[in-house]
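Why should sequence recovery work at all? Because a backbone constrains its sequence more than one might expect. Tight turns favour small or flexible residues, buried strands favour hydrophobic ones, and helices have their own preferences. The token representation captures these environments compactly. In the example below, the structure is given first.
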């Protein structure tokens, strides 16, 4: 019983990590195209459809209900769904039930690999995976605390003081953001809820003391925009997803490029606020700071990320013209409309999944365990009809409507056709529901041949 519960948890966890990894892999393959046609913000939203699905089966299930398009990406990668009715839209590459330690590893496209599991395999795999989560959590926590401890030694600046007074216009509406000037930092960064002062937790911006005033203004604006764009909680979400599914290399790559899109989104938002001269200065600032240390392993901190790509994007960026008339009359509205429609199409393509997808090979395992063999199962089918021994099954087809129900159609050696219905109980045993003699050959659309 304990081993079955462990397998249920382990299979759900692995299925979620594999499905999210495949979605991330598809976005990585599409990235050269997406960089040309979508904004960084739109790319971020596509990334988040994958990251939001990485935590719980319920989250994946919820997004799978948004099945608008005839075919979605989740349709293509789902060879089988979990039998638990609460998660019947979650792919089950590993089944959530075992049959005498024999399982089928389902692959996208409907193929499968039979596997035999020993009782010790699930506990060992669970221990290794959990150990990786714990170690990576400890590493990230230690790195974050180390960076914060170093930065918190810096001098706290007053928004009304001489250093920040020229930038008073950038001050947020609330007072929950403070700035420290730090010596020897590898890069400037913002850290969410980093310090508690007078009973209030503040978002902290840590600036390099070596920055000249004009560069400091640009860096400060950039870090404040991270907060305005809600990038801090986005990075927290993707970091937790990385920790949970550390064993999947596609998720590591997705983490890298999601962080890059976070920075590029912030760059674009910042450039929108600057004059042409300051835009050029901002690009030069990226060039100079691009060699700074990346803070990818600090979950709530933002530092430099792929400076070369960001500089290229900043140099080629063109500020949108601002019009005074209604949005739908603006020229740039119509220019951006195809990109938005493509984004919406891709968003709908990456959500929405099938339900109650059955892998026929699983039913074969169950029938073999219950009846001894497929031949014994067919013989019992014929015995129920009371046919003479000379009548045999020539061909057989099956159709699965649900994971617990299937119809079988047989062509008998005497030329007649008959349909048989079966139902599976919660204990895994199949029970015959009844026969129907067919007056003519049936429409076999939706059926798959399984005998001989």
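From this structural description, the recovered sequence reads:
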């Amino acid at each position: 019983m304990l081993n079955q519960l462990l397998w249920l948890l382990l299979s759900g966890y692995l299925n979620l990590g594999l499905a999210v990894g495949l979605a991330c892999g598809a976005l990585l393959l599409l990235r050269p195209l997406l960089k040309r046609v979508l904004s960084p913000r739109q790319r971020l939203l596509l990334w988040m459809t994958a990251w939001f699905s990485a935590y719980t089966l319920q989250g994946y299930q919820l997004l799978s209900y948004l099945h608008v398009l005839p075919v979605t990406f989740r349709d293509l990668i789902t060879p089988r769904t979990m039998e638990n009715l609460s998660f019947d839209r979650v792919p089950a590459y590993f089944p959530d039930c075992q049959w005498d330690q024999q399982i089928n590893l389902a692959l996208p496209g409907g193929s499968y690999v039979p596997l035999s599991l020993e009782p010790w395999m699930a506990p060992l795999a669970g221990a290794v995976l959990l150990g990786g989560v714990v170690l990576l959590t400890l590493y990230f926590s230690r790195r974050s605390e180390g960076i914060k401890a170093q930065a918190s030694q810096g001098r706290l600046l007053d928004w009304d003081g001489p250093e920040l007074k020229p930038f008073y216009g950038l001050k947020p509406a609330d007072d929950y953001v403070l700035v420290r000037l730090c010596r020897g930092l590898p890069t400037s960064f913002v850290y969410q809820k980093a310090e508690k002062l007078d009973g209030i937790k503040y978002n902290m911006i840590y600036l390099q003391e070596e920055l000249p005033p004009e560069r400091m203004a640009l860096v400060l604006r950039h870090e404040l925009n991270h907060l305005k764009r809600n990038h801090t909680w986005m990075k927290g979400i993707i970091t937790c997803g990385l920790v949970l599914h550390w064993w999947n290399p596609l998720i590591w790559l997705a983490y890298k490029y999601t962080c890059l899109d976070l920075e590029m989104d912030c760059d674009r938002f910042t450039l929108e606020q600057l004059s042409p001269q300051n835009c050029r200065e901002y690009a030069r600032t990226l060039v100079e700071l691009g060699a700074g240390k990346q803070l990818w392993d600090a979950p709530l901190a933002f530092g430099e990320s792929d400076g070369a790509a960001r500089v290229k994007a900043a140099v080629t960026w063109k500020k949108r013209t601002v019009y005074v008339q209604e949005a739908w009359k603006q020229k740039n509205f119509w220019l951006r409309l195809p990109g938005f429609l493509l984004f919406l199409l891709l968003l709908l393509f990456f959500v929405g999944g099938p339900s109650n997808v059955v892998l026929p090979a699983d039913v074969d395992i169950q029938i073999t365990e219950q009846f001894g063999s497929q031949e014994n199962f067919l013989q019992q089918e014929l015995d129920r009809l009371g046919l003479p021994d000379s009548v045999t099954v020539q061909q057989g087809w099956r159709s699965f409507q649900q994971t617990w129900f299937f119809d079988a159609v047989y062509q008998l050696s005497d030329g007649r056709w008959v349909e048989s219905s079966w139902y599976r109980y919660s204990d895994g045993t199949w029970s015959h529901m009844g026969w129907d003699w067919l007056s003519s050959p049936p429409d076999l659309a939706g059926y798959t041949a399984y005998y001989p």
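A few observations help interpret the result. The radius of gyration is 29 Å.
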